[in-house]
Amino acid sequence: MADIEKLCRVYSALQSERGSWDSFIQEIAEVACPRKAYITQKTNAPNGEVESRLYNTTAVQANQTLAHGQLTYAMPFSERWFTAEPPRDMDNDASRRWYASAGEIMAEGLATSSFYTRAHEACLDRGGFGIGTIFCEESINSKSGLFFAVPQAGSYCVAENAEGMVDTMYWERDMTADQIAGKFGEDKLSPESRKAYGKPDERYTRKFKVCQCVKPRNNRDYSSFQAVEKPFESTYFMPDEKWELRESGYDEHPFFCSRYLKWGTDPYGWCPGWQALPA
Asked: Among 252, 257, 248, 246, which residue's Cα sits nearest to residue 175?
């Protein structure tokens, strides 16, 4: 069972570290990506307030051009931008056919999923805010069997390992009681979300903060095949109620986090979007 108290303390510390970054990102978003300008100024209802204050769209168009260029150069939708090849010690005709077939399946899976839409979103964040992140896990609803998501700027915290690679992430999102029950089961509802779940006027509208922590698992049982012993641990919890929803794990890190350029020792990065701020 996860130590939720400890996870909440670490999450709070990482949020404090991210605080100064949030204020910069809010300013950048207002001039380079107005629809994302709700980092320090939260709202659940769409409005055109930020757009109405935008008197010059140069930064917006420049970031869109940069994102399109990154996507087209690195991950073109109309071309095969990767191949699957066997290791040298397995390089034979049978292995090459198997890996070629695997590559075709991978390409089809990406094409029939939301990958390219999400990758475009991540490129907008990478060029506009300095960091872009894509989350991937298995889906039981998608035809491709893959689920992709891009955490909104200001909704997640990251930490690096000794080599400067992001290996720890806390991702917070708002979920209704119905969504929590659908993803984790009715028996996992917290006291407050259970009350909302039983009320028709709150079940689909009242939002609760749900955080997912993904980090390397230390002191795991290498002989076990259970999810709670996989190399990367994943814990969903509700920070406001200190309530655990699910503890599991991944064989590989489900988040791909890219920084445009590093900003000293800061884990979040620098990007051309910073130059859009008024002098």
From this structure: 246
263, 241 in Cβ contact below 8 A?
A: no
pLDDT for 213 beyond 70: yes
User: What is the CA angle 230-233-236, rounded to 5?
Assistant: 135
37 pLDDT band (50/70/90 cuts)?
confident
For range 273-277, the mean pLDDT: 82
**DSSP structural state of residue 78:** T
> Of 153, 178, 127, 171, whose CA–CA distance to 7 is shortest?
171
143 touches 87 (CB < 8 A): no
CB-based burial label for 6 (10 Å; 0-12, 13-18, 19+): exposed
Selection from 67, 52, 63, 55 nearest residue 28 by Cα: 63
SS3 call for 53: coil
Residue where the block lists tokens 């949030």: 22
The answer to whether residue 217 scores a pLDDT higher than 90 is yes
Place of tokens 């699957």: 84
CA–CA separation, 1 and 167 (whole Å): 21
In this predicted structure, the answer to whether residue 52 has a pLDDT above a threshold of 80 is no
The token duo for 266 is 């800061």
Task: Decide if 234 contacts 253 (C-beta within 8 A).
Answer: no
Q: Quick one: pLDDT at residue 45?
A: 63
Radius of gyration of the chain (CA): 21
CB neighbourhood size of 228 (10 A): 16
The whole-angstrom separation of Cα 64 and Cα 267 is 24
Helix, strand, coil share of the chain (percent; to 5): 40, 25, 35
**What pLDDT is attached to residue 121?**
96
What's the pLDDT at 142? Answer: 84
Mean local confidence (pLDDT), 144-148: 92
